[in-house]
Sequence to fold (465 residues):
Amino acid sequence: MTAPPAHALDELSHTGGGPDTLALLVRDQDTRRMLLLRAVLDAAEGADPADCPPAAKRRLREDWALLAEADRAADGPRSPARTRLTYPFTGPWARRCLTALTTPDGTGELPLELAYFSALAAAAAARAGLPFATELTARDGLLCLPSLGVLRTGRSGSAAIEVRHKNGRLTLRRRGASDVHVRLEQGVGAWSGAPAWTPAHALPGLLPGAAPVPLDDLDPYRTPPRDPGRFAFSGPSGPDHAERKRWLQAWSGTAQALRTGGEQRLTETLALLRCLVPLAPPPGSDGRGSSSGTRREAFGALLSTTPATPTALAATLVHEMQHTKLAALGELVELHRAGPEARYFAPWRPDPRPYDGLLHGTYAHLALAGHFQRTALAEPARREAAWAEHARYHAQVAAALPALVASPDLTPAGRRFVDGMAAAHERLSARPAPRGHTARAQAYVKAVRTLWAQRQPPTPPIPNG
Fold:
């Protein structure tokens, strides 16, 4: 893992990133994931038997061996085993296990956490076409087989499930219930006529020939633990058939909406997006609110409420893929040494932001300003609405950039990056929105700044002496 070359840093600072630069980010994140998994295995091997019993260690080694066999058996450059290990939610799982193994008294849930890895290995082996027989553990009445689906046991608590695979057919056997037979489908999902089985779902590739994109409403690690904060993620959603249809309708027009805002946006979405996670509407929104986000520990996942239109989904992708790029870049090279103190004005939030939060938000809004400027220039039917969006995002970035540029906490790489952002913002100014849109956007930002300042507690006086 090495620092990115100067040209890659420059590309990213302009909210871009060519194929080689995006591939660099992906390779680095995949490498970090494999190192994290190695750390989990090493921590388990070195753990006290009271925390990680010999049987658990032995099962972990067996699961890893099954994954290695699945990797060897697969055709093509990307095996089902590697796909599962670098899937976004293997990251949160691994971090949770590592925390449990390295924190005093943190291993209470460890057996159930490790059971997820056993199911992951079994799913990868089935995808690779390996025959096997194993025993898995359902947790809270659910056995999740990543990329395949979920078996619902109908009982609370944990339960042992015997799983056999041969020739693309899984047999799931549990005590006191009929066997469930499941047929694997190509890519994502597995079909069964049993009511106890819920298949995994996916949206078609963004372009013809592109891989399907999982619409993951099943993985137990798909959303972070609930945070009562105002800007935390809303809870996970379990979409019904009608809701999935709305996702598909929005998704079907998203490639064109992305391309209208610049070919770069389509390129980076194809390179970085690994799954979509449906979210419930935010609390108190009467079902009409929207929210979206990414998670640093789950590279490639985008969490979102159901998008209303392809245009809305495209804007969400533009926004969130910038967070994905910047988070990955921040692990390759240190951009700043600012602390976590929340003290900066961000025109898109009512609360003060830490420097890193301001950097992320400004970067995402800069990309949106460019996206809507190109849309306004290319789509006569949407011109006025797109100019209004562009003017607002452009004015917001203009208000945030001075604090970023002036920071003494920037590293040399960070200075180059922020200066590149400022230059990209200046280039957008060469094709301004019509005067009325610009004036309204600037007045809006000014009003927001005034309200923000009024809400901040007074600065305490500096004591004498």
About this structure: Residues 228-330 form one domain. The chain has a mean pLDDT of 93. The radius of gyration is 24 Å.
